[in-house]
Amino acid sequence: MRTIIKSIIFFVIATSILRAQTDEFEPGSPYTIFGVGELNYSNSLRTRSMGINGIGLSGDYVNSLNPAANYDMSYTRISLNGKYSFYKYSDATSTGQDSDGKVDGLNIGIPISNEKGISLFLGFNRLSSVGYQITQIEQNTSGNETRFYSGKGGLSKINVGLTYKLANSVVLGAEYNYAFGNIIDSKKIDFGLQGVTNTDIRKEIDLQNSYFKGGAIIEIGNLVKSKLLKDLKIGFYYQTKINFNSAGDAIYTTSTSTDTVRITGEPLEFPASFGFGISNKFGNRYIVSADLLMHNWENFQSTKITVAKYENSYQLGLGLEILPLSESDVSYWNKLTYRMGVFYGKEYYSVNNNDINVLGASTGVNIPLTNQNSIDLAIMYLIRGKNSDGLIKDENLSLALGFNFGELWFLKRQEEN
């Protein structure tokens, strides 16, 4: 246990150092220039390794998306995970690459009554990430005009929730969330002309407010008499919109002066989202799960310098989990849990009248350390956009690491002889 705790401390410190060594504006996808950045729906490495968000997948883990899915824990669960990402982006004429490490979240789940399906869970997770640096050169009659766009920040959330089993086959979950964060966007224009003052605009916005999530899991396997469907579950979730309270500064810099304009009360509505999922266990070893998540962004109004056309978005995923063999005399490799999946979606913005689609695949493994403690390893790869029609092709390879503890709060002291 001491070794695991030391590993976690090293993991958090190392990630912080990696981030501190970056430029003022953090690396990330160029598409985080739009809206509130890249959204993180689920921070569980189990579900992310399977290419899903886990809307219909319960079990001995903390589900950070559907609150109802947390009813099925047998032990107290504590999980911490993060990732290191490699970014490659290209347009019709050039390419670039970067890398960055982030801690994604800490989640705790406490089963109170397995019979009544009561579990308490809480967490601190990343909700969105902003990190981009873009250079654009435009030719005009007077010469070349160079524009530099950069940004950093994002949103985080603190959550607490509870589950309860209404009947033999229906579980409900509710969750309170407090979201907060800071987004900084900068735009610099170098006109490349003597006697012409260059432009430097920096916008800093602080955001905060509360929102709620509700979910349900229906155990279809308890309602039908079928061996094949005895573990079939369907899940639903709904997240209310977030009417962010926003305040910040717009800073305008010229060669002779710097003016700061205070921004207060500028509205920013993070829209509602909903989704459903399904999962089933086949035999003793195979779990298949799929889900669809939808987000209504049509009426979103951005506070950022760069404005895009915002549209409804969705993400569809399909995943497989291969459980370890239960026999005690099997090889080490048969004691591991293997995961894999694929996902496809449409982002919540369009550029040059083109939808920005995402296609990706993921895989991972759970490595047991003791009966209730383990490490998750995952690899995720995605492609966003394309390098034609004036767009950017964004490729992202992420290596993720997670630590899982069981019953850490309830370890019994050894009796002295």
Layout: helices, strands, pairs:
Elements (H helix, E strand, L loop, with lengths): L1 H19 L17 E2 L5 H5 L27 E14 L4 E19 L4 E23 L2 E23 L4 E21 L8 E21 L13 E7 L2 E12 L4 E7 L3 E3 L2 E10 L3 E10 L13 E2 L2 E10 L14 E15 L2 E15 L5 E11 L8 E14 L11
Antiparallel strand pairs: 1-4, 2-3, 2-19, 3-4, 4-5, 5-6, 6-7, 7-8, 7-9, 8-12, 9-10, 9-11, 12-13, 13-15, 14-16, 15-16, 16-17, 17-18, 18-19
Task: Report on this structure.
This protein has a single domain, classed as Outer membrane protein transport protein (OMPP1/FadL/TodX) (Porin). It is mainly beta and 417 residues long. Strand 16 (337-351) and strand 17 form a beta hairpin. It has a 14-stranded antiparallel barrel. It starts with a helix and ends in an 11-residue tail after the last strand. It is built from two helices and 19 strands. The protein is elongated.
What attributes does this structure have?
mainly beta, 14-stranded antiparallel barrel, 2 helices, 19 strands, 57% strand, disordered C terminus
Write a concise synopsis of the structure shown.
This protein has 417 residues and is mostly beta strands. The chain has one domain (2-410): Beta Barrel (Porin), CATH 2.40.160.60.
Quaternary organisation of the protein chains: single chain
Total strand segments: 19
pLDDT averaged over residues: 84
Largest sheet: 14 strands, antiparallel, barrel
Name the CATH class: Mainly Beta
As for the number of domains, it is 1
**Secondary-structure class:** mainly beta
Which percent band covers the strand fraction? over 45%
Instruction: Extract low-pLDDT stretches.
Output: 4-9, 11-23, 408-417
SSE pattern: HEHEEEEEEEEEEEEEEEEEE
Helix proportion range: under 10%
Gap between N and C termini, in Å?
23 Å
Global morphology: elongated
Give me the CATH fold name.
Answer: Porin
* Number of continuous helical runs: 2
| CATH architecture classification name | Beta Barrel
